[in-house]
Amino acid sequence: MIYEMRIYRCVPGRLPALLKRFETVTLKLWEKHGIKQAGFFTTLIGESNQELTYFLAWESLADREAKWGKFMTDPDWMKARAESEADGQIVANIVSQILTPTAFSSVK
Fold it and tell me: In the record, which residues are listed under signal peptide (predicted)?
């Protein structure tokens, strides 16, 4: 199992729109494509309170490539993303890291 950590840094004031999109659209589409989330977090103390950090669990890099590719090209996702950004851009930038658990990690 490998994990992907993604940090979305929002345009100021747009974090609520991002959270709504995940809650009402994105998670349903991930389920459709077999994408497994491993936790979502907002920043309480840190550099910015306009961030969403989440983790995805993948069987392998090939698993990620196949499922993420299908999700990103899903017409329902493309439509929902465009509709959610009708009032303007939501995410300023995204940081993504692929992580592998250590031998002593409680998460495997």
Answer: none
Q: What is the pLDDT of residue 43?
A: 94
Q: Are 94 and 8 in contact (CB under 8 A)?
A: yes
pLDDT-based confidence at residue 108 (cuts at 50, 70, 90): confident
Q: Read off the pLDDT of residues 29-40 as tens digits, 9 standing for 90 and up.
A: 999 999 999 999
Give the phi and the psi of residue 56 in degrees, each rounded to 5: -120, 145
Burial of 10 (0-12, 13-18, 19+ CB in 10 A): buried
Over residues 45-71, the pLDDT tens digits come to: 999 999 999 999 999 999 999 999 999
| 42 alpha-carbon distance from chain centroid | 12
Q: Judging by DSSP bridges, how do beta strands 36-42 and 51-58 pair with one another?
A: antiparallel
Cα-based distances in Å from 97 to 6, 7, 8: 7, 9, 12
